[in-house]
Amino acid sequence: MTNKRHGRMKRGIFAGLGIFMGLIILSQAAWAGNYSEEQELVDKATIVIQRILSDQQMGWARAHLQSAEAIIIFPSFMKGAFIVGGEGGSGVALARDAKTGEWSYPAFFTMGSVSFGLQIGGKISELLLMVMTRKGLDALLSASIKLGGDVGVAAGPVGVGAKGKLTDIVAYAHSKGAFAGISLDGGVLAPRNDYNEAYYGKPVPVSDILIRRVVKNPGADHLREVVSKIRK
User: Fold this and answer.
1) 63-66 contacts: CB < 8 A, separation 24 or more?
2) First CA to last CA across the chain, in angstroms?
3) Cβ contact 228:102 at 8 Å
4) Sign of the CA dihedral running 77, 112, 107, 11
5) Residue 18 parent element (H or E)
6) According to DSSP H, which parts of 104-185 are helical?
7) pTM here?
8) pLDDT, tens digit (0-9, with 9 covering 90-100), for 30-58
9) CB of 15 closer than 8 Å to CB of 54
10) Half-sphere exposure in the Cβ direction for 11 (13 Å, CA)
11) What per-residue confidence (pLDDT) applies to 160?
């Protein structure tokens, strides 16, 4: 057995254990009766980031995760509707400190866009956005961001030996067991200030969460730990 194959197997085993433990945490918290929507989103994001980046086709994303300025994880993102097509979902963003490499506590975001046309049916995907430039990170601190307008966005490279071009944000989708890059031109990202306030117990701007890091919630410690340990 080669070291490369052994590494893939080891990564898959650890990812499986992590997802299993995440499901146990979700179940225990739900039974406790004090499980908030915000904490549920954080815990689901923890499971999703492990599932997406444990796939062997996601080598580029793993290799560049610890050099990304930030990531945004959407555990559930719906696309498509009858006649009027729409996209939407809520997610969590974490920023990486350029000096220490430490990941921030999460800030909550929503993303949506509307397009007109015959789009019968719908699809729910898990999305991962990797913010690769300082321009992209700075944009997260604004009231809203138009993808493809305020910042560049491109489908993330998938597959063995995949190579990506430099852009502000690269995007990945996981749906029905398949991984793929996805184009999100026209999507609008905005902070979920209500979630941020509920999770940290006071009104708090995104910059105080991602950059100045003046608030904490131990409920997100596991997510931060998982992200910090993901390597190529």
Assistant:
1) 63/232, 64/130, 64/132, 64/164, 65/130, 65/227, 65/230, 65/231, 66/96, 66/101, 66/230, 66/231
2) 19
3) yes
4) positive
5) helix 3-32
6) 134-140
7) 0.80
8) 444 567 999 999 999 999 999 888 888 88
9) yes
10) 21
11) 55
Question: How far is residue 175's CA from residue 76's CA, in Å, rounded to a whole number?
Answer: 10
Task: Determine the longest span between alpha carbons in the chain, in angstroms.
Answer: 54
pLDDT score, position 162: 58
Specify the pLDDT at position 76.
85
Where does the pLDDT of residue 114 fall: very low under 50, low under 70, confident under 90, or very high at 90 and above? Answer: very low
How far apart (Å, rounded) are the C-alpha atoms in residues 170 and 175? 17
Q: What is the CA 206 to chain-centroid distance, rounded?
A: 16
Tracing tokens 């493809």 back to the chain, one arrives at 148
Q: What pLDDT, on the 0 to 100 scale, is given for residue 116?
A: 41
Phi then psi dihedrals of residue 88, to 5 deg: -175, 155
Give the list of residues 6+ apart from residue 229 with CB closer than 8 angstroms, or none: none
Q: How far apart are CA 224 and CA 148, in angstroms?
A: 28
pLDDT for 68 equals 96
Handedness of CA 207, 211, 216, 220 (dihedral sign): positive
Contact 116, 65 (CB under 8 A): no
